[in-house]
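Both lines are given unchanged directly below:

***
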Amino acid sequence: MNKAKKREILEITVGVILLSLGFYFFLLPLNMVIGGVMGVSVLLQDVIPVSLFMYIANIVLLFVGLIFLGKALFFKTIYATLLSPTIIWILELTIDKNFFMQYLTESPLLLGATFGGLFIGLGLGIVLRNDATTGGIDIVQNIMNRFLHIPFSLAMYITDGIVIFIAMLVDFQLGLYAVGSMIISGMIVDRLAIEGKAGFTAFIVTDASETIQKAIYLRLERGMTKVKVIGGFSNQHKDMIICTVDRMQIYQFKHLIKEADPKAFTFFTRTKEALGQGFSREAAKWVTKD
């Protein structure tokens, strides 16, 4: 097993643990239905144990994912699919679900919805960042994202919204809190799964392109592209350097440009997602031989 695969398994495990803890300790005690398989399990907990329903639903949807999303995602998902209900099952046997909520005497609904959404958003974002899912409704959301090109957060709002709407017919107030919790988790998912790979792209029009180029290579260890441009007013030929850096390097980059060519015309644009060398990690191979 290579390092990339070990890292992905570790991060997926951490993500599933976080979302399972958020659900079990903050949402389940309040009977708050945030959506997905976990939400449906809350609605049916008087009929079937939460962990058992999650096992059944996740396994069924897992094979749906195999058909539509392929074997690579299947082998990543099968681990998280079984891990999540297993964690819930262990918690059911060992720790009371009200372990934390019993101490929240002021605004328990608000705190439960906030921290439940926070934990679930963090966990799900970490899992999705590794191109995996936690199974269940996440598979449906991935299918919507891949084939209908619907942003994952929007797909999550649609599928979870249907479940929450049903829950609101049972308890309208809890449903409103669940909507807030869903919005919190969706925002965090986007931050971790998409914007976590974001950066800034600099466009630098300069007469000192060689100096800036060397500084970028030596001090930032980034690649760059040079383009010949002509000034619209001066009609002079200059070089324009295009370089994408991550957010941690932006201030160092500005200082570098100021040192090399204080007169350089520079502007930065926010890059929503940057892929390739320097931004993408080594991919773990999950597809097995037929």
Q: What stands out?
A: The chain has two domains: 3-195, 199-271.
